[in-house]
From TrEMBL, chain A:
Keyword flag Transmembrane helix: yes
Record Pfam families: BPD_transp_1, OppC_N
Protein name: ABC transporter permease
A Gene Ontology BP annotation from the UniProt entry: peptide transport
GO CC term, one of those recorded: plasma membrane
Organism the protein comes from: Arsenicitalea aurantiaca
InterPro entries named in the record: BP-dependent_transpt_permease, MetI-like, MetI-like_sf, OppC_N
From TrEMBL, chain B:
Keyword Membrane: yes
PROSITE patterns assigned: ABC_TRANSPORTER_1, ABC_TRANSPORTER_2
Predominant subcellular localization, coarse grouping: membrane
Family: Belongs to the ABC transporter superfamily.
Domain of life: Bacteria
Name of the featured protein: ABC transporter ATP-binding protein
MF-aspect GO terms: ATP binding; ATP hydrolysis activity
Pfam families assigned to the protein according to its UniProt record, in alphabetical order: ABC_tran, oligo_HPY
Entry's Gene Ontology cellular component terms: plasma membrane
Gene Ontology BP annotations: peptide transport
Annotated membrane topology: Peripheral membrane protein
Subcellular location: Cell inner membrane
Amino acid sequence: MRTLWTYARTNVERTALILAAIVILLAIFGAWLAPFDPTQIDFRARLQAPSWEHLLGTDGSGRDVLSRLLHGAQITILSTLAVLSVVVVFGCAVGMFSAFVGGPIDNMLMRLADVWLGFPPLILALGFASALGASLEAAIWALIFSWWPNYARLTRMVTVDILSRKFIASADALGVPTHAKVTRYVIPNAFDVLIVQVTLDISAIMLAISGLSFIGVGAQIPMPEWGAMIADGRSYVANGWWIVLAPGLMIFLTAFSFNVIGDMLRRELDPTSRRRQP
Amino acid sequence: MTEALFAMDDVTVALRSNGRKMVTGVGLSVKPGEAFGVVGESGSGKTLLTRTVFGLQDDAELVSGRVRFDGQLLPEQGYARAARKLLGGRIGFVPQDPFSSLNPTMRVGKQITEALYLARGMPMGAQRTKARAIEVLGEVGIPEPELAFNQFPDQFSGGMRQRIVFAIALAQEPKLLIADEPTTALDAITQRRVIELMLGRCRSHGMALILISHNLELLRQSVDRIAVLYGGQLHNITHADDIGSRTVHPYTEALFECIPSKEKTLADIRAIPGEPVGAGFGTKGCAFASRCRYAEPICRETQLPLNGDQPGRFSACLLGRGADA
């Protein structure tokens, strides 16, 4: 945590770190802070502007926007993490296997990954939605399905590079077995490159989930997912601007801060990107 | 005469991809506790030969020859696997470049304890392993070994890193240590110290050493016997003291004449005419014939004689120069 803070060179980066920390805290504790039930419909209190009772107002069905936002943080962040963790573990495993095995199997796996990347995630998500029924789970599966080749390719590239370095030859001369080479030689040396990609992908996946929810193939109303909240609120923009503004702003700020952090990590950790002075 | 610890006989190495023979008919043997040098110009095949013989080169293979270590003949089938099994325990291998030979993400101490563990095949207790690792760091001359144990490789200078590489290899207490140009990246004084360190280990532990270098003078001053490779052929095995004092193979002689020293005037330093021939040039006859001042037509045609795996002197010169007189 402290190292992360020392990487920050500009106020934008410091702000991004603080925002990201707040979002993560909200995802963990937000549900307890919420003053109302996020799905409680109250038609007497519909479309109320922000007030002391409803700090961010209420939506078209009288649900408290702040409570929905706080619960939504958890849903959005958790589903992003779900996608990321599966994609990173699976993609990295495929990539490392490919690099270690080499030869025609390596070639085959990588061409498969190339072809796979050709599927647009949106179309896949629509397909999943029609097969599984539109739900947050379908959106998560669709993203997992379309995202893993990125990691397979990246990890394969990094692993091939690491395996060609001299200390791997030394490890061979010492008799280090393959499993130890993976855990103690390849993963630690690939970590810097991967962490940058993961951070950048947090915002990309979050945007994708919200986007899918917005067009209706992801989270369904009344689930307080941020993208779904915007979709729900867009018909009230004229007389309830706060309904779309709050989740929109949250998506924007979260995506923004993780993007800035990713770029910052890339600058600090990735030896292949030139060091830019701010 | 003591039994040779390591011996190769008529070893030929070829590339896997096109079958081109890069190193042909090399025979040599190393006694326990002996410091043995292998010298050759860049591209003479010395690194390829050793890496292949110890199963570390994936793109080349042994196509003929026998290799024996510690009384055991290595099998032809699955040769590379069998050779690699000897590494990390009975044979230690020190690679060329100390700057990139250490895992940058692993603490120095951890890399030594890993080597210890791999050599013994069983844990000997965290405390004892650590104590032993610190001991080895001290043995190779790292100041404050307790501190060094928890540091990362990038916190050391080149000379210190090479010592750490040695510490890792020596921790496994090998009977034979192969050092491939271990000092090329180091300055002259550090070179000397690192070589002394290895020779000291030979004397104190009876470890055999194969030192591979392009620097004849460095080898002449440090090892007992030197094998001279040129163009993928073994040309000469000679006692280090003989170089410059008695007749040796014409190539060894020519190499020695290139070395500047106090006693020589500028006119005495003679470069070898012509361009060096790389390994795998693929004609019969002596690879050095094109540049040799003694060369006769027979040199270009006749197959070079082979050395058995007998310890001692050997000269492959077709004119008999440098053969035992």
